[in-house]
Amino acid sequence: MNFFSEEIEKLKASGLYNSVREIGSAQGPWLVVDGARVLNLCSNNYLGLANDPRLKDAAKKAVDEFGTGPAAVRSIAGTLTLHRELEAKLAAFKGVEAALALQSGFMANLAVIPAVMGEGDEIFSDELNHASIIDGCRLSKAKLTRYPHADAGSLGDLLKASGANKKLVITDGVFSMDGDIAPLPGIIKAAGEHGAMVMVDDAHGEGVLGRGGRGTVNHFGLHGKVDIETGTLSKAFGVVGGYVAGRRDVIDFLVQRARPFLFSSAATAADTAACIAAVEVLSHDTGLVEKLRDNAGYFQERVRRAGFDIGRTMTPITPVMVGEATAARDFSARLFKEGVFAQAIGFPTVPKGSARIRCMLSAAHTRDDLDFGIEKLISAGRATGVLK
Questions:
Q1: Please, where are the H alpha helices in 206-310?
Q2: What is the predicted pLDDT for the residue at 14?
Q3: Looking at the annotation, which residues are catalytic?
Q4: Which residues face 243 on adjacent strands?
Q5: Which positions ≥6 away from 90 have C-beta within 8 Å?
Q6: C-alpha triplet 304, 310, 312: angle, nearest 5°
Q7: Angle at 67 between CA 66 and CA 73, to 5 degrees
Q8: CB of 226 within 8 A of CB of 199?
């Protein structure tokens, strides 16, 4: 049992020990964190919907009507009329034939990949894909081939060399640590030339990219070209849950074979009703998405001008590159003392030597909020030596 304490000490010594802070308020542009009121540059609440009155009212109403818990898995006695309504609205929003609602975005990837792929098949996965994709690939027992990040040319070469029964290319739509966008046109072209299916995890693309936040596929105008989309309802949608979207036969198949659907209790009525409200908001109003994009452009231009390296981001995800994990931890701690909540991210979430402060912007931030955050990034950066 000494293994546990020894490993914890190693993490602390290397600057990789993650101290989990406690949130004492609803999500918003400002939070109470460990008892202090701080500017929130840390959450995935892209559109500010996590504390939206419309979503809260829908959740309260659902509790009164359906109770607190589903009491069963979806396939036995846990599918509510609310689940069906959410799936229909998600399918319409994403422009596909059908959708399947699940407990989380992580579960969505675990639902799809092992059900679709198996021994004798081959999965081609971007080397920077999310952990849930990596775990889904491992569970599938298919051969896993990682292709260089966002390199459709190398992907094509690897697909050409494969003799697998089935081939599946998987990519994040938006990569959560760098904020760059997958080159979907090139990926789809390579897959089509070599008989491969394409799956996109759009967790950080929905609510951010495309018309009214319809995601990465919509951003590129590629409806009907991507075979399977997965995503989360816990980021831009402001609630919790996941989904799979695509052709009707794909969804029908997953209802029969996806293990998280078959063997884990359904999402609660309150969460599902709040998700429905969020989809309705985005279906009829593009204002929040436009405000998010304006905020991202304003913040990033000024942070770059101040001398920070924010990498290749093309989205509101703003990685302030630091390098060593200990330096990133010190920078984050100094920011917190100055009233800004922005966590350090290091290995194994990102490669060693590429630790960063990941600033996450929201439509809920005002221009004054952003100016305050920029001012404190500069002062904390200078105090810690991150900004020369």
A1: 216-219, 248-257, 259-263, 269-284, 287-306
A2: 81
A3: 176, 204, 235
A4: 101, 231
A5: 99, 101, 243, 245, 279
A6: 115
A7: 80
A8: yes
Whether domain 53-284 has CATH 3.40.640.10: the reply is: yes
What residue ranges do the domains of the chain occupy? 16-46+286-384, 53-284
pLDDT digits (tens, 9 = 90+) for 158-214: 999 999 989 999 999 999 999 999 999 999 999 999 999 999 999 999 999 999 999
8 Å CB contact between 31 and 37:
yes
Say which residue the tokens 């995601």 belong to: 215
Instruction: Say how far apart CA 323 and CA 315 lie, in whole Å.
Output: 21
**pLDDT at residue 348, rounded to an integer:** 85
- pLDDT per position as a tens digit, 275-312: 999 999 999 999 999 999 999 999 999 999 999 999 99
Q: Would you place residue 13 in the very low, low, confident or very high pLDDT band (cuts 50, 70, 90)? A: confident
Ordered strands of the 36-40 beta sheet: 30-33, 36-40, 340-341
**Beta strand spans in the chain (E):** 30-33, 36-40, 98-102, 122-126, 143-147, 167-172, 197-201, 228-232, 242-246, 317-323, 340-341, 344-345, 355-360
Sign, CA torsion 328/333/337/339: positive
Q: Which CATH topology does 16-46+286-384 take?
A: Aspartate Aminotransferase, domain 1 (3.90.1150)
Q: How many whole angstroms from its chain centre is CA 305?
A: 28
Q: How far apart are CA 265 and CA 359, in angstroms?
A: 34
